[in-house]
Amino acid sequence: MTELDSPDVTTPGKGRRFDRGFSAVVLGAGLLVLAVLALILISTGIEALPAFQHSGLDFILGQRWAPNNPDSPLFGTLTFLYGTVVSSLVGLLIAVPISIGIALFLTELAPRWLRAPAVTIIDLLAAVPSVVFGLVGVLVIGPALVPIYQWIHSLVADVPILGSIFGPAVNGNTFATAGLILAVMVIPIITSISREVFDTVPVADKQAAYALGATRWEMIKGAVFPHSFAGLVGGAMLGLGRAMGETIAVTLVIGGSTQIVANLFASGNSMAAVIAQQWGEASGLHTNALVGIGVVLFAMTVLINYSARVIVRRAEIRMKGATA
Amino acid sequence: MSVTTTPPRRQVDQLPDLSPAALSWRRRLANRGMMVLITACLLLAILPLGLVVFEVISRGGGVMSWEFLTADIPRNYRRVGPGMGAAVVGTLMITGMAALLAIPLGVLGAIYLNEYGKNSALARFIRTMADVMTGVPSIVMGLFIYVTWVLTVGEKNGFGGALALACLMLPIVIRSSEEMLRLVPDELRQASAALGARKWRTIVTVVLPSAISGITSGSLLAIARAAGETAPIIVTVGIIFSANVDLFSGGNTTLAAQIYRNASLTFEGAQERAWGAALTLIVIVLLFTIIARVIAARFALKER
């Protein structure tokens, strides 16, 4: 080799084979996500099959849950579905306005020095483990709420519909308490999505609103909200998905009784909570049925999450198109 | 706002009064009221955080001691006195094993998405599915590992818990690492390629080192979240009272699982241990979160 020879950079050899191998490995790691999701559906689906076959459509539509029934166990999960939906909706009703408020505060109102600490507080709220919220919920917040529930009930007891929604409260473990705890847990998620969405509102629109003489609130109403409506819906749905799948905090504060009642101050159960409660003593078909609840829950949350992501992404793309 | 200065009037008398005082009382009230409400929302979020931190510190602080962190858990829930040693060991080992599984795989997956897949249909699909996977309820992840691991090996053990936590961490690590890889300037990759480095070499020696602080901080946040997970643990791990350092045989336990077990009991001793375990867990989680934020703030690549 003379000094003037340039290095041959095209030689196929060990390096190139290693390159191929490396790209195969990282592709494999990427595909792992798809593999795990598919495996979850297949493996839990197969495990739950005996329970599905045993109960048929009653698994979803039936209201009677009697796993230890001597003749033939009954696995109707409608009450748990009801509890999941009601506690999540109560959570969302509380969390969505507060989250939008926080996001507005952070994007439109807060002085620059306050933004970083405020974001840190929201992040810390997201970092608290759900079981700790459950612990505080069942031992401190629940008991403290009982007199408030009773007071609300006494206010509306004679009003026809409100009287049954805000019915009598026996103890602090209720749908309402579960919803309240869920609200605290989904606020960080909805806030962060709302902030992303508000950040994409074109500055020109806001300035135009001000130039027309709008106050700050009128600017938010006229320029920020119309732009971000779709994104906010997506954020709320992400929160809903999280709330429906939340297990331990709800298990601790929802009370664990199998009933469908309009009374928010009564105790109930949710799909995730019933799995956690009964897992320890379950065996045989009972275990299959609990796995079956998990399959239904998985399908529901994946569906909600997927559509929420699509909505948020579409909203963001539309917005970026507007600024360009 | 209340001090109003009338703008100097010129001869032109159509010049409108633009001062806030000129607004109708209705518009001014709506504006003021909404601004107060928006600010109150932040306070409403601080309230539960403050309450949780206060309760956990005031109730858990009393039982905290070296003995509490190391002694065995009493077999009788009624007994008053310390002991969370098995749970502390279990939390560290199970979460550590989950991190060992999920972080390398997650980073490799992120490398695929950002360096190889880019905007291809497959990469976009994986990205969406990773987002969907972050939303899978943790209890479902526990059931999945129960069916695939616990039923296969025939017993509940620590490794099952680690697998479940790893599945929960994987999408978080992938998405946060990908964000960080995206911030690495393309010029670095081009310079490396111009020097004759192959793609894997460019990635391993140039791209990864530039993004390592961000990847570390994202991974620490994922660890912090996994350490507090309860539902998959109670499904896959079983229960023990004295520390078990073997993840592959025999049951195990974590702080989160112990909080859950003890929280719903009415015995004073059990509740005290639940509060102590909550304090320990919160300290561990916050420590990881704070270290992650410090690393992110100190060494972050600035977005360009």
From TrEMBL, chain A:
NCBIfam families: phosphate_pstC (TIGR02138)
GO biological process: phosphate ion transport
Keyword presence, Nucleotide-binding: no
InterPro entries, per database record: MetI-like, MetI-like_sf, Phosphate_PstC, Phosphate_Transport_Permease
Protein origin, superkingdom: Bacteria
Protein localization: Cell membrane
Keywords: Cell membrane, Membrane, Phosphate transport, Transmembrane, Transmembrane helix, Transport
Pfam families per record: BPD_transp_1
Domain ABC transmembrane type-1: 81-308
Bilayer topology term: Multi-pass membrane protein
UniProt xrefs under PANTHER family: PHOSPHATE TRANSPORT SYSTEM PERMEASE PROTEIN PST, PHOSPHATE TRANSPORT SYSTEM PERMEASE PROTEIN PSTC
Protein name: Phosphate transport system permease protein
An example Gene Ontology molecular-function term: phosphate transmembrane transporter activity
Transmembrane segments: 21-42, 80-106, 118-142, 148-167, 174-193, 224-241, 248-266, 286-308
Biological role: Part of the binding-protein-dependent transport system for phosphate; probably responsible for the translocation of the substrate across the membrane.
GO cellular component: plasma membrane
Predominant location category: membrane
TrEMBL record, chain B:
All copies of domain ABC transmembrane type-1, residue ranges: 88-296
Cellular component terms (Gene Ontology): plasma membrane
Membrane topology: Multi-pass membrane protein
Predominant location: membrane
Compartments reported by the entry: Cell membrane
A Pfam entry, by short name: BPD_transp_1
Keywords, ordered alphabetically: Cell membrane, Membrane, Phosphate transport, Transmembrane, Transmembrane helix, Transport
Coiled coil regions, renumbered to chain: none
PANTHER family associated with the record: PHOSPHATE TRANSPORT SYSTEM PERMEASE PROTEIN PSTA
Family the entry assigns: Belongs to the binding-protein-dependent transport system permease family. CysTW subfamily.
NCBIfam families per the UniProt record, alphabetical: 3a0107s02c
Name of protein: Phosphate transport system permease protein PstA
Organism: Stackebrandtia endophytica
